[in-house]
Specification:
121 residues, alpha/beta, Rossmann fold, five-stranded parallel beta sheet, 21% strand, globular
């Protein structure tokens, strides 16, 4: 399964990838993007992509802007946020835009499994 992890922090991308591996998703083929604009390019160029995990706050294009752009283009690619904030307002915006979930930092492999597994069935 091909997965895109978008975050402007290289360290945070590494943490997300490591946590995914610890959660048992070590069979995933993970691509990384440094912001929403780069992520949108990957989404548009890789038809095998199966899931996008994105930070909310990024330069050039935020995660919520990325999700809106994807949906405006007709993409129904599964999308989840992994971000530092998890306010009720952000969760409502994410859900309204079509995100499957929002995982707030700090997180664990167990949180990833409990959140992501229901969408893989």
């Amino acid at each position: 399964m091909k997965v895109l992890v978008a975050d402007d922090s290289r360290v945070m991308r590494q943490i997300v990838v490591r946590t995914l591996r610890q959660a048992g998703y070590d069979w995933w083929e993970i691509t990384e993007a440094t912001d929403g604009a780069e992520a949108l390019e990957v989404v548009n160029s890789d038809p095998e992509l199966a899931l996008v995990l994105s930070d909310w706050n990024m330069p050039n294009m935020t995660g919520i802007q990325l999700l809106h752009a994807m949906r405006q283009q007709g993409s129904d690619l599964p999308f989840g946020f992994v971000t530092s904030e998890g306010s009720t307002e952000m969760r409502e915006q994410a859900e309204a835009a079509g995100a499957l979930f929002l995982i707030a930092k700090p997180f664990s492999a167990e949180v990833f499994r409990d959140t992501i597994d229901p969408f893989l069935a």
